[in-house]
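User: Small ask, check this?
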Amino acid sequence: QELLAAYLREAGYQTEPAGDGVSALALFQSKSFDLVLLDVMLPKIDGFGVCELIRRQSQVPILMLTALDGEEQQLRGFGLDIDDYVTKPFSLAVLLAKTGALIRRSRGGTGTETLTCGAITLEPGRRACTVDGRAVELPPREYELLLCLMRHQGQVLSRSQLLDKVWGIDFEGGDRAVDGRIKALRAALGSAGRQIKTVFKAGYKLEEGAS
């Protein structure tokens, strides 16, 4: 872990190591990340368990490290929607190349994509949000929810659609789980939160106006 963190920092990336699955999930909840480098053989909660829980709230790129090169293990990982595998032993150069490729892919290739709707601006490549030029820190779930609304601005999305897109189709909670997150998102956005409209018996949509 220390070797990989040092190598990635030397290549210009910021790293946040976690020594076990529980710590990894706590860290993921507290900050935004461009990529998760996940070892299968984690203590407390293994990599597959961590991946499954992350996928319930985010589509952040996941690169999995494993000493298990059997087809069954790889299929299990891809079934959990990981983005790529690196099998031990591996070349650090290959790991770095895959890391860069996944981040570029998640940024739409260039990392320069900017989404704007009214006072709200998102830069998905940096997971950055600003309202009238002021930086706003959003928890991962609220960020993914806003990103989904931004990508479909003006379109009404039902609660079940938002659950599928943001929480994942295997989420076991009810549709009303969306409402609490929308409330928190509106509060975080301040006056721009009024851009998120409730459409009676239909769902939510994002509009430019805040009236």
